[in-house]
Amino acid sequence: MTAHVARKNRHALRFVTAAAFGVAAFGVLRISPFYPTWLVLAMALGMGALALASPPSSALALAVAGSVPLVAADLVVGVTVMIVALVATQYLASGRATGFLLLALVAVALPIRAEWALVPLAGYLLGRGRGATTAASICLAVEIAGILTGAAAIGTLATGGGTALIQPATIGHATPSFGWLTESIAAADPDRTLAVIGETRQLVLLGLQPLLWATAAAVAGALRRTLSPLLSAAGAVTSLAVLAAGSLAFRIGLDAPTSGLLPTALISLAVTVAVIVIAELVFPVEALPETAASTPQAQSEEADVDDLLRVIASAEDTLASRHRTEAVVLLSDMKSFSALTEDLGSLESAKIVQRHRDLLLPVIERHGGKGKSTGGDGLVAAFTSPIDAVDAAVDMQRTLREFCRSDRTCGDLLIRIGIAEGEVVVDKGGRPFLGGALNLAARVMDLADGGRVMVTGGVAATLGDQATDRMHSHGEFKLKNIAEPLKVVEVLWNEDLAPQEIRAT
Predict the structure, then answer these.
(1) Does one domain contain both 234 and 151?
(2) Do 166 and 67 form a contact (C-beta atoms < 8 A)?
(3) Hey, which residues does 472 pair with through a beta bridge?
(4) Residue 404 maps to which CATH number?
(5) Are 157 and 146 in contact (CB under 8 A)?
(6) CA 464, CA 164: separation in Å to the nearest integer?
(7) Which site among 54, 69, 349, 351 is 20 to 30 Å from 273 CA-CA?
(8) How does pLDDT run across 468-488, given as a tens digit for each residue?
(9) What range defines the domain where residue 332 resides?
(10) Does residue 199 lie within any of the structural domains?
(11) How many angstroms separate the CA atoms of 90 and 100, rounded?
């Protein structure tokens, strides 16, 4: 039987999310007088109701509705912001749209001086990677709002203080005749918009602030619930301390007043602690009832993945808070396995595969990895550090070489290995089965011949002086389903090994 975990009272989270969407929508839509109060209330209720069924759809609706007043004020600015908002929802509105919700809640947090609370909560709820991206997006959104309105600062953030493109209080009212749209089109002036944006001051500070917010969120994400509730809370407090120290340093460096920082820090701390305490007490993680497997196949290692996928489908928040993590992923497979099966037959090839698993899985474990079979001729493992993953890959190649020298049944068995670092979803044993890092490792491995070890440029860069084997950079490659070109580095684990020639991507 297999046991899994999920949040207690997880079904109630749908209603909490819906209520939060309603509050966020009200906060965003009431900023300007474009929508009458009764319509703001109606739209907020509608978006909250929509979030019950589909939080991403509610996020899209709010992105459009929040951009329309800007279209009325300045066509160029409004259309640009709407496009950026719609693109941002593709990332921030994934799953239960927690990232987009935190972004929208800044309109509610700023008036009560609690905007800093969104940073540790982003790390706590979304993890290190997505949390840092979300926090940086929130900071950028506030900075953009300041640039558009000519504000020198919004809350604790410096926002340029140039010429105002938009005055929220002077935006006209929505009318069924769409006369406001006609006026906006007639008044459109792209040159003026570019000129005003070009006057933005404090560009260095505007670039440093999102980095500070991202770093603080990453601190909270690094110590989130995957370790313990106590460390999650400690991570959130540390995150606020990093944010406060950085903001204070910026204010002192600019000779700006620091009087508003302490109230913001205290209020944000209270809000952060309250949210985490509620999450831990009302929605704690609990073990799901054990279920008996109906077939021998369901009792296999792969059944663990199937069960976890069902947990993901019914409780994505559990996945986000407990099973998603940053890791170094190692992926391997056997060279020419299909040809081997044809030559030896299914039974003999299956014996070789099992022998290769029994030989190499202990090597992975010896280097601190959490590994398992991919269900075919491959192995996959997660490590906490790049050096451990690379050492394991080298040890795997050398172990297999020595075994094949002493065992005639081994034949010309060769494996190829790819290593990448990033976000990944792990099963209850800490073994990877889904995520961006796994995809990257697979693409890098596809470039390798048998007996080769390929790593991403990011992994190679983190090794530094720790690398005991020779490294050869093959340059950048455009890989399938990977947006940006990726630098690929080969680990030359054998003294006589020359760099492989990569002919195709």
Answers:
(1) yes
(2) no
(3) 490
(4) 3.30.70.1230
(5) yes
(6) 47
(7) 54
(8) 668 888 988 888 878 788 899
(9) 308-492
(10) yes
(11) 10
